[in-house]
Task: inverse folding
């Protein structure tokens, strides 16, 4: 995984709450392999809806945006990692919102995308910030846990473990392999402690 | 690790810690790993690493997300491919599969517990957010993404942070007509769709103790809809009686020994929770959703909100947007909302008791709108047919189909057409969940049956007066 320290790009302001993973990627697009790319399906049906609540994604002002700003409960619902594939393949590397679905946030980190938790007030401030709305650049500073727009800065929260993992670009599986002996020891002891825990049949 | 007073959440956690890093992350042993067609992303990751499944004996596959529920003889090629891909991957890795033609086929969260694979004190994971369902048995069960699925495949473990603990206590008793679905929707409306984020939830109290296993499965299933990592219920005699004799459950002395261990899982009397919610059972009435999030739920006799009366502009906009999508005028009485079809099924409400409750309303009545009934498993389908429930559904004019995730998620092609309104026993009323432009109202099986016979959102209570227990 590519280490993440800072990035600077326009931020796309999406003033929606409860953007669930079904909206981020509708189920019918999930049959294809990841290698074919998921970016084209990002919020596909929202963008096709009358009144298009996700029109900002197609607004030239936010071309090249790597940061998405949204309201509370972003990425709730289905565990589909394809939602993160769609965001990442579209170009987003940081989502800033007041709260995230737990599974989504975890999936994001596995794919090098930063789930940055900001306060509700800061989310509203960013969503209406003239600099953001004009397509101005925002800086995501992960080590400092700060978003900077013009001369304003907004603190964000992230699980310390995730921060470490993102900053270092660590891969879970490689890390776990160094625990192979501990896993074997646990399994052996556990089969004595809980002999009923394996499937009968 | 502290061994003072502990919650059931801590007890299961402590029994599964393989190692804990300095940063607080723990490597957790996984007792059961469940796969479905969507797991192909993880199998692809394994292939790229040239890796194998570490413990195929603890891994089970179920074909459910894409399986056709009708015309299984003529399956669309891209759907067939999804099912075959799972079969090939399961065969290659030596994983037991409840495939399309297996008598044990069904929705993973319906058939796996019925097979006795879900045990109290287990840690269970699956690449599906409704894995929380298995918490009904006192299992620590949660949904994960594809990268974590690949990690569990390769190591039989998962990195986790100890969750915060929340207890939801429901005291007293439910009034007639109120079900586990109504408990869940009432809770989600109260704490919000993100109200339990970061928490593992224990459901407790006399209402919970009084629920059948089916009701407990429904309640725990919906834990994710309030954002909970998982939801569980301490195992008791109801749990043990259900498990005794199931195919994969322990047998004989092993079962007796297991029950002894399982009884010790209950939270200690003075165990501390980070957060507690108390609800009164008698306050919980038949509830339906009106909007595009499960938190948009109200008692059936209420009116939908009016955004002009909401002070917070962001909240008002969310309500306005939801009502616009749903095609409902502000302030409309729920009972005045007409529906175009009904769906009875999904991992939330497709078990035998769910079908009985819907059938009790539908018996000797005709549905005035079309509807689909998809039982939760092939076994549930067989049992319902033995009980004659299929006749009741068919005689009412509803379609009786095979088992799968079906119209809850629409992956197999069972969708609600654009703009149509569906009374649904499922778990998500998200925009487009049941198909592009589909409008979903969540409710219990008896409420969906009431919608079928009235053609609108309707209170089921007058319709069962004198009919059931």
Result:
């Amino acid at each position: 995984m590519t280490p993440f320290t800072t990035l600077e790009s326009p931020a796309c302001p999406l003033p929606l709450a409860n953007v669930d993973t079904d909206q981020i990627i509708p189920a019918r697009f999930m049959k294809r392999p990841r290698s074919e790319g998921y970016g084209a399906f990002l919020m596909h049906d929202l963008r096709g809806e009358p009144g298009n609540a996700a029109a900002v994604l197609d607004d030239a002002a936010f071309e090249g945006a790597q940061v998405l700003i949204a309201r509370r409960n972003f990425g709730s619902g289905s565990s589909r990692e394809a939602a993160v594939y769609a965001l990442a393949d579209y170009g987003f590397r940081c989502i800033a919102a007041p709260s995230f679905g737990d599974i989504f946030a975890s999936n994001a980190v596995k794919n090098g995308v930063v789930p940055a938790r900001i306060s509700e007030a800061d989310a509203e401030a960013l969503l209406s910030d003239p600099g953001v709305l004009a397509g101005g650049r925002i800086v995501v500073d992960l080590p400092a846990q700060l978003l900077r727009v013009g001369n304003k800065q907004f603190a964000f929260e992230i699980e310390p473990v995730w921060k470490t993992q993102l900053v270092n670009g660590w891969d879970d599986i490689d890390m776990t392999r160094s625990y192979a002996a501990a896993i074997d020891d646990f399994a052996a002891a556990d089969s004595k402690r809980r002999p009923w825990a394996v499937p009968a049949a | 690790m502290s061994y003072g007073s502990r919650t059931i959440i801590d007890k299961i956690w402590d029994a599964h810690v393989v190692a804990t890093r300095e940063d607080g992350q723990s490597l957790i042993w996984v007792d059961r790993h469940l796969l479905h067609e969507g797991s192909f992303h993880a199998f692809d990751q394994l292939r790229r690493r040239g890796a194998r499944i570490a413990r195929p004996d603890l891994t089970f596959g179920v074909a459910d997300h894409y399986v056709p529920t009708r015309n299984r003889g003529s399956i669309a090629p891209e759907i067939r491919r999804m099912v075959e891909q799972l079969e090939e991957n399961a065969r290659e890795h030596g994983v037991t599969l409840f495939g399309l033609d297996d008598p044990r086929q069904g929705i993973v969260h319906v058939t796996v517990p019925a097979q006795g694979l879900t045990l109290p004190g287990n840690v269970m994971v699956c690449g599906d957010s409704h894995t929380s369902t298995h918490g009904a048995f006192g299992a620590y069960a949660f949904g994960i993404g594809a990268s974590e699925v690949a990690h569990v495949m390769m190591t039989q473990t998962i990195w986790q942070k100890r969750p915060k603990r929340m207890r939801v206590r429901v005291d007293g008793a439910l009034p007639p007509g109120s079900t586990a679905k109504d408990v869940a929707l009432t809770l989600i409306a109260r704490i919000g769709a993100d109200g339990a984020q970061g928490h593992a939830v224990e459901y407790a109290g006399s209402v919970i103790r009084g629920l059948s296993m089916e009701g407990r499965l429904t309640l725990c299933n919906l834990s994710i809809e309030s954002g909970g990592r998982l939801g569980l219920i301490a195992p008791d005699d109801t749990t043990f009686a259900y498990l005794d004799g199931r195919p994969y459950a322990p047998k004989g002395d092993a079962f007796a020994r297991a029950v002894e261990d399982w009884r010790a899982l209950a939270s200690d009397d003075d165990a501390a929770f980070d957060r507690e919610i108390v609800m009164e059972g008698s306050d919980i009435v038949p509830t339906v959703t009106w909007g595009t999030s499960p938190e948009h739920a109200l008692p059936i006799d209420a009116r939908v909100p009016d955004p002009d009366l909401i002070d917070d502009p962001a909240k008002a906009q969310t309500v306005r947007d939801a009502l616009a999508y749903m095609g409902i005028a502000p302030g409309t009485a729920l009972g005045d909302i007409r529906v175009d079809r009904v769906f009875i099924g999904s991992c939330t409400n497709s078990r035998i008791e769910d079908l009985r409750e819907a059938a009790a309303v539908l018996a000797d009545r005709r549905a005035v709108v079309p509807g689909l009934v998809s039982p939760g498993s092939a076994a549930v389908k067989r049992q319902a047919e033995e009980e004659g429930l299929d006749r009741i559904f068919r005689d009412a004019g509803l379609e009786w189909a095979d088992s799968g995730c079906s119209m809850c998620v629409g992956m197999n092609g069972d969708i609600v057409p654009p703009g149509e309104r569906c009374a649904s026993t499922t778990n998500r009323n998200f925009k487009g969940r049941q198909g592009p432009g589909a409008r979903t109202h969540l409710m219990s099986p008896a409420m969906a049956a009431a919608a079928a016979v009235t053609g609108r959102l309707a209170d089921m209570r007058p319709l069962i007066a004198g009919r059931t227990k």
Notes: The longest helix of chain B spans residues 77-93. The radius of gyration of chain B is 21 Å. Chain B has two domains: 8-276, 287-464. The mean pLDDT of chain B is 96.
